[in-house]
Amino acid sequence: MKLSDRLRQDSETIWKKIYNHPFVVELFDGTLPERKFRFYILQDYNYLISSIKNFSLLASRAPDEKSLIEVAEMAYMEATGEFEGYRSFLEKMGLSVEEAQGQEMMQTGLSYVSFLLSTSSLKTFQEGMAAVLPCYWSYQEIAAYHGDKIRGMESEIYREWASYYLEDEYIELVDRIRALVDRTGTGFPYEKLREVFINASRYELNFWDAVYREGIT
Amino acid sequence: MKLSDRLRQDSETIWKKIYNHPFVVELFDGTLPERKFRFYILQDYNYLISSIKNFSLLASRAPDEKSLIEVAEMAYMEATGEFEGYRSFLEKMGLSVEEAQGQEMMQTGLSYVSFLLSTSSLKTFQEGMAAVLPCYWSYQEIAAYHGDKIRGMESEIYREWASYYLEDEYIELVDRIRALVDRTGTGFPYEKLREVFINASRYELNFWDAVYREGIT
Amino acid sequence: MKLSDRLRQDSETIWKKIYNHPFVVELFDGTLPERKFRFYILQDYNYLISSIKNFSLLASRAPDEKSLIEVAEMAYMEATGEFEGYRSFLEKMGLSVEEAQGQEMMQTGLSYVSFLLSTSSLKTFQEGMAAVLPCYWSYQEIAAYHGDKIRGMESEIYREWASYYLEDEYIELVDRIRALVDRTGTGFPYEKLREVFINASRYELNFWDAVYREGIT
Amino acid sequence: MKLSDRLRQDSETIWKKIYNHPFVVELFDGTLPERKFRFYILQDYNYLISSIKNFSLLASRAPDEKSLIEVAEMAYMEATGEFEGYRSFLEKMGLSVEEAQGQEMMQTGLSYVSFLLSTSSLKTFQEGMAAVLPCYWSYQEIAAYHGDKIRGMESEIYREWASYYLEDEYIELVDRIRALVDRTGTGFPYEKLREVFINASRYELNFWDAVYREGIT
User: Fold this and answer.
1) Contacts of residue D57 in chain C, CB cutoff 8 Å?
2) Distance (Å, rounded) from C-alpha B182 to C-alpha A135?
3) How far is C72 from chain B (nearest CA, A)?
4) Which fold has domain D3-212?
5) D178-190 confidence digits (pLDDT tens)
6) Mean pLDDT over residues D99-128, rounded?
7) pTM confidence score
């Protein structure tokens, strides 16, 4: 079994909760209040910015040239394509980047990005990459799990959001991150990778929870 | 006067030595032994790789989103365009990336990249950017200073190398780095920026010195 | 008003909740179930270890020699005096450092230390120091707020724990951290310091919450 | 053979040059111009300060609690005992810490500390520790190698300087650093440790060279 598949398997309980989280289920059923979705989108800004920083940090600690070049490219893709996509998506919803920037960050989001950035700063490249994977991968699996509902989704906004994670370009990004984890992490103490992968998966679940509650604790 | 112009002015003595360094002068006069040039090109590999890491580090510490995106793009440009250009240039000289990787790094080069990476790791973003500027900028100025000789250069390899630093794409990169130093460094304690800029300029000069001596101390 | 007093004032709402948190109130009233206290003590291990790392990180980024020496000493005090005190306290409770190490870290604790470590790694020294202050300072204030109950506390363990935060040695440590924040942070953009100080105060509150629930979410 | 002994053996050629360097030989023979010694002592300030930062950085990346506590203690010893010793030594020579701080750092010294700090920032703890060892260890070996001359040294200053590196306290520090390299580095790819150990040894040699020339290049 590939390393990434083993990590995925060991997080099954958490991932199931992610697929079946009310935010996710209601979004694909079309019953999610738009207010909650807007809250989510605005909170996502902080994650996107931190993600560019985090891939940059990981690049600076890459163990070999191939990984260095690949992760620097991921940082760039986040900073350009992803960011532009995010901006145009905001606009379709009548929102702006400035509104997203001005949003107070909920603590659950701060905790998640702090976890990613401190792992990349102080632990190994391998652990940093394993921490990054659950976010990207679980979005693809969410979209695949609920995939048969997408075509019939009434809300254009929800449908566009959901479709993105099944596009070739996105799947290729997930595949590249997985391959990087598999290539650099094989031979690395598994327990350490498992710990960060599970923690990152929990932060994903917490994030859905917190945006569903619109940050109210 | 712009901040970058002031930094440049305060390093005039060192930069003059760079323009008039035997390696540079002989290269444009066509009298530089190809053996020295090959040594230089092979040693440059380490600088290029460290440069990708260094821009990545700086991105992770960028003080605002605009700088973050810009510096992540610079890291990417180094990792892709610059790297591919370097690879194809090596090939034209009958060399390979593997040979460059296998080359023992001369200590002068190690010192230079250590200076850049420790500045970006432990000092401010502003100081890190000021440390990066002399390399990119001085190459442009070297090519401009000796520009009228380029057309007549006999060696295709030397001519191609020299022309690159006068191309629009390269000049635009230098302009962007300068603009970033000007924008983020204005208001920052000047003495600190001056210190790193001058030290980086000295490392540039040392680098030319060391490759001219082919690493022999 | 001193910078630290202003930060403290702006966090008043959160700090009041800390003083009056059931965990704290019941501890000083002697009604806190020992099971909850043991859970807290075991979870505290991770904070202590991260605190040594965090002060070390801050030392490496200190803006001047005086701060460097002072923060390196704080790291050492955590690594020796605090750590030995913690070990002997564990022993009095029939626990060992190994048990604390073997404890699964609750996510609230992981979030708190990730926040501290990523702030020290990627933001300024001033922000890193402002993030550290609420923990140390609020413990002193908790003990002072409930101080008149200490003498009459039945549980020797609870009494010993509470008394420690009113000892001269501890108060001096808090005073030194405050003085360092005041000295290096004055003139620094206040909003940034306020943001990390308030976030750290929230993490303190979350921590009490989570240990009161014994990590059950 | 212990890992540290193997590293030491592989650097034999460089270490021999260190023992027999004119600066070292003339110092023990009592013929070293005091001007050169003063230059050396003033330049050493930067190394001492960077050493506190460097041990702090290494502490923040320590792979286990034992190493963390030990390295935090080394940072503290540098910041207190070593620093106080240095200050009182300066005073005996009619110099002050302020003069040392005001000294322009020679580039050889900047390169050495940049190498140490960038290794600790971006490479592994094991490589960072291997980079630290040559400085401490070679001073002990220099003093031992020329040990029979110490008693007869006329200059009280030179004698005091030389004696320090044979005192129990200093030897114990070297032993602890070696033991830490041996304990954490065994099993780690040897070639990587060898590379940093040899580079650090070269920087030691360069440092003696540069202070002998009083920074004139």
Assistant:
1) 56-57, 60
2) 37
3) 16
4) Heme Oxygenase; Chain A (1.20.910)
5) 999 999 999 999 9
6) 96
7) 0.96
